[in-house]
Amino acid sequence: MLTDVPDLQCRSISKSFDDFKAVKDVSFSVPQGTFFSILGPSGCGKTTLLRMIAGFQKPTSGDLLIKGKSVIDVPPNKRPVSMVFQHLALFPMMNIGANVGFGLRQRGVNRSDIEKQVTRVLERVGLAGVAERPISSLSGGQKQRVAIARCMVLEPDVLLLDEPLGALDLKLREHMKIELKQLQSEFNTTFVYITHDQSEALVMSDQIAVMNNGVFEQTGTAKELYYEPQTAFVAGFVGEANRFAATIKNRADSGLQMTTAQGQVLHGTDAVGGLAVGDMVNVFVRPEAVRLSRNAEGVSGLSNAGQGKVENVLFNGANSQLILRDQQSGAEMSVALPQTGEFRDLSRGDLIHFGWEHLQTRVYAATGDPHGH
Amino acid sequence: MATDRSKLAFWLLLAPCLIWLVTLIILPHVGMFLVSLREKVGVREYETSFANYAVFLNEPLYWNTFARTAYMSIAATILTLLIGFPISYYIAKLTRGRTKTTSFLMCLIPFWVSELVRTFGWMILLRETGVFSNFLQYLGLVNGPIEMLYNDAAIMTGLVYTSMLFMVVPLVTTLDSLDDSLIEAGYDLGASGFAILREIVIPHAMPGIVSGCIVVFMLSLGNYLTPILLGGKDSLWFTGLIYSQFITRFNWELGSAFGFLLLGLSSLIVFVGLKLTGQSLGKTMAQS
């Protein structure tokens, strides 16, 4: 079913606790069938936002629409949204079937229909035949699926997920990321997922909103956020980045020329526009954008280049990194170790040339600390 | 060697408990039971028989008092639960920090004075020349002084008041351990407040409810002061009968038989209560 009405719409939602503003004037809309993530550090207001959508908290101002209808005055037990809680909140006093059938029982569905629907939804999440078993007999990942089944059996317009993978161990978390995405496309329901873990958001989402200090910094696809961050916060928060504080010395069509406090000269691209000579800026370079070379010629064509001493090799399989100390400015840089094996023998104390393109150097006006600390 | 040692340690650690059980509980009860089986046939002449138990069955006053004590205690237990549950829910779920400590303390403070003093406090309030009577007269609602003591309502008030803490403590503990997100999840899945109470809160609090009820029931059944002082000479409480057999009549044989009947009654009612609620004693006591 294709409609122009988005499943969920927030119109300048704000929430204040006493004199603290947790959510400030946030607006967004989520089209039907989208996996929408809200990514942000803890305390950024994302949980408050989710609880307002679920109805547990009332916005100070603004409007909330589900399928085009305002639900601002609808209590949580009447809203067409369901929520998967951080610790799942499965009812330990009921067996799995009773947990999944809980919502249907509240709607007054008759017993045999409940049984049929519970069986069907448990099959869909790959847990057929467990209805009679107690909750405690399930593993972490299975509990997760029961929690989702318990919501999906009600066919909500929007499913809210409050960091449900946080309690799982790493291996299972990686697995559940894929599974969650598959479940979402299978049920074709709109998911609103909040997390502080960027890899969860990047892997699963169709759309991601990066939230900081109660506002949405940027909304876009994972690729957009990664390659074209619009604010310094997004550039620093999504993915890894080397960060420099610098002052603009020259502005040309080809890019910006800047100097750091240590005198290092950098060339970069104005990410959002509007920067002028003399501005204080933050410069971001991704570790994988930096090229390594054993001799100076290998990096001579790049607009930023230098020679560094290997301070540390952080071996982590495919995600291994080098920590380099720039010989000229003394600045520290982290560089992704290429997987070709060419630099496998590098060790602490070795000298190596490095460089990167100015197009992969994103420059933002310095407005306070980009991490918001 | 090691196992011998650990066995010794086990028995040594268990010893205080065993000594307590044997000397303070089992021995007196065995003694009482033997006394209850003696029938006085002459001066210092006794025969073993169930005559004392027969006396109980043949005298309607005795078993009427027995039944009355049982149902009054059950009523007091239910009443305490009905009043204690909202209080506990409020303390455990709706208050935080300081307010929580204060309200919990307010339940506790009356227990710093003895039961006797507390009961006298109620007598000051309820008697003919007491606070309530005078206040009602002052308001002009009644013409003359009214006696509120020496009736079943006064006994019930006293029993509920005396037992409240023993209901509130286990309830607050179990309700405290109920995760708020379970209640929120219930709302989120479309449940009404009543459905959440019935399907989530009460099943979770069941061990606390049962252990609170057992304690309150036992305390009420075995209470002596409150029924006698607030109910007066017509209170007809079974412990009063036992007291008068032992102390007033010097009839230890009948008193012991009564004691055993009371023990049997309380065990039976607790057993039935556990069966009805589908709980087991072990589970209940372990969780609270």
What can you tell me about this protein's structure?
- The complex is a heterodimer of chains A (373) and B (288).
- With 373 residues, chain A is an alpha+beta fold.
- Chain A folds into two domains: 8-233, Rossmann fold, CATH 3.40.50; 240-365, RNA polymerase II/Efflux pump adaptor protein, barrel-sandwich hybrid domain (OB fold (Dihydrolipoamide Acetyltransferase, E2P)).
- Chain A has eight helices and 20 strands.
- Chain A has a six-stranded mixed beta sheet, sandwiched between helices. In chain A, strands 11-12-13-20-14 form a five-stranded mixed barrel. A five-stranded antiparallel beta sheet of chain A has the order 15-19-16-17-18, with no helix packed on it.
- In chain A, a hairpin with a 2-residue loop joins strand 4 (61-66) and strand 5 (69-70).
- Chain A starts with 7 loop residues before the first strand and ends in an 8-residue tail after the last strand.
- Chain B has 288 residues and is mainly α.
- Chain B folds into two domains: 1-36, no CATH class; 51-287, MetI-like (MetI-like fold, Orthogonal Bundle), CATH 1.10.3720.
- Chain B is 78% helix and 3% strand.
- Chain B has helices at residues 2-36, 51-58, 60-94, 97-108, 115-126, 131-139, 152-176, 180-188, 193-221, 225-231, 238-248, 252-277, 281-287, and strands spanning 38-42, 45-48.
- The two termini of chain B are 38 Å apart.
- The model of chain B has no long low-confidence stretch (mean pLDDT 88).
- At the A-B interface, strand 6 and helix 2 of A face helix 8 and helix 9 of B.
Order of helices and strands of chain B: HEEHHHHHHHHHHHH
The biggest chain-chain interface is: A-B, 25 and 17 residues
Oligomeric state of shown chains: heterodimer
Radius of gyration of chain B: 24 Å
The 3D shape of chain A can be described as: elongated
Largest sheet of chain B: 2 strands, antiparallel
Strand order, sheet with most strands of chain A: 6-7-8-3-9-10
Q: Can you say what the CATH homologous superfamily of the largest domain in chain A is?
A: P-loop containing nucleotide triphosphate hydrolases
The overall average pLDDT of chain B, rounded, is 88
Sheet with most strands: strand arrangement of chain B: 1-2
Q: Termini separation of chain A (Å)?
A: 44 Å
What top-tier CATH class of the largest domain in chain B fits best?
Mainly Alpha
Structural class of chain B: mainly alpha
Name given to the CATH homologous superfamily of the largest domain in chain B: MetI-like
Described by the principal axes of the CA atoms, the overall outline of chain B is globular
User: What is the CATH architecture descriptor of the largest domain in chain B?
Assistant: Orthogonal Bundle
> What is the share of helical residues of chain B?
over 70%
Under CATH, the topology of the largest domain in chain B can be stated as MetI-like fold
